[in-house]
């Protein structure tokens, strides 16, 4: 709904849950990356996508695509 600030807060709560399932954490990082991307906070987006990629799960391939694209940008 465009409330990106609240989304960042909520996704940070998700990724801080040590007992969460791996898929939940991966999704949390994925959506956090997308939220930062929408806000043009590209360094933070890249970091979140990289963490999603490191889980090597359902979002790994698409997260890698974003990491590669963001790494190549001059900022």
Helix-strand topology string: HHHH
Shape: flat
Radius of gyration: 12 Å
| Total number of strands | 0
The major beta sheet can be summarized as: none
Average pLDDT score:
93
Give the termini distance in whole angstroms: 28 Å
The percentage of residues in β strands lies in under 5%
The count of helical stretches stands at 4
Q: Which bin fits the share of residues in helices?
A: over 70%
Would you tell me the structural class of the helices and strands?
Answer: mainly alpha
Low-confidence stretches: none
Index terms:
75 residues
Give an overview in words.
- With 75 residues, the protein is mainly α.
- It is flat, with a radius of gyration of 12 Å.
Q: What are the SSEs and their pairings?
A:
Blueprint: H1 4-15, H2 22-38, H3 42-54, H4 60-71
Helix pairs in contact: 1-2, 2-3, 3-4
In short:
The protein has helices spanning 4-15, 22-38, 42-54, 60-71. With 75 residues, the chain is mainly α. The model has no long low-confidence stretch (mean pLDDT 93).
């Amino acid at each position: 709904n465009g409330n990106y600030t609240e989304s960042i807060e909520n996704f940070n709560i998700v990724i801080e849950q040590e007992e969460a399932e791996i898929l939940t954490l991966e999704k949390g990082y994925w959506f956090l990356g997308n939220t930062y991307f929408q806000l043009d906070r590209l360094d933070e987006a890249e970091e979140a996508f990289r963490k999603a990629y490191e889980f090597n799960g359902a979002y790994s391939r698409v997260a890698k695509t974003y990491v590669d694209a963001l790494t190549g940008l001059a900022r």
